[in-house]
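>> received
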Amino acid sequence: MARGIRAIVRLAVVLALGVPTLLAAAPLGEPAPPIVVTVQGRSVHLPPGTTLARAVRALGLRPRAGRLLAVDGRVLLPRANPGRVYLNGLPASPQAVLRDGDRIEAVDGRDEVEGTVRRVRALPGRRPGNPRFTLRTWRLREVRVVGRFSGALVSVRYVPIGHAARPPRVALTFDDGPWPGTTRTILGILRRMHVRATFFVVGSRAERAPALVRAMVRDGHAVGNHSWSHPMRPEFRRLPPARLRAELERTNGALARLGVEPALFRPPGGSVDGRVVATALQLGMRTVLWDVDPEDWAGGKSPAALAAAVLRQVRPGSIVLLHDGGGDGWTTVRALPTIVRGIRRMGLRLVPLR
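>> returned
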């Protein structure tokens, strides 16, 4: 709007110089009165006989061209949709002679986002799902949605084909740490019982407790990304794209400084969709969920009841969700030896996620 006002001021100077030319062909005597047109919502006086092209040049009306954007926000074409000048709401010839009461409007071209295409391919061999709920493996069909021109990844999902292979293994996973007291105690129990597990750490907490993260790595545990701040409201998958990506990138950066390159990501609260999976994949991580959740975070259970809840649900290939952080984790600490012994009595081996 400010550009239009400045242009109108310039027009007054231009037209003051141009009036003799425009009126040179008029008969001698009283000059013809100016016409009044509306330009970008403001009244402007013009000499009779002014064409649309002359007015546009004099006003400096230069509508901005619209861009073609990739699905990830990059500019693919800076001038994909030209801006237009309308006369009385309609396209008009530049040579159209303006009349009293006409309306001139310069309209910027619209930015448009490229369309998407779906690409499907069968993956070779047997693989875990993504998101991964268990240790079972399938033949998978990958379904990607990508930008039509840029090829940028929008979302991805994996469709199992046929029957799953069920390995005689179980993965214990711990979320929301590292946490003062409980994480160190859990590491001690796992060390004494010769168990390797997987810890999904919150980046801001890992940064404050680097020694605990190094202890996880030293003991042979897998360390995964559980976001920087563990946002729950709005739920993780509803975060703006830039915020969601930053939650993962910042945690990866903190872990990299501790010598960890995470290959696994677990979204807070298990909030996942194709966009979350795609973002993690772009950062080199597969998404992991679970199929056994005793809700140890909720409290209200005795250690024996918590252990029983886990052992009732465990099957070959299970991924068990537990918590070493986020609150009072001492019930989990006390239940852990019973959980480990119970799983081993089933003939199942405890393994970290890879």
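>> The domain at 167-350 is CATH 3.20.20.370 (TIM Barrel).
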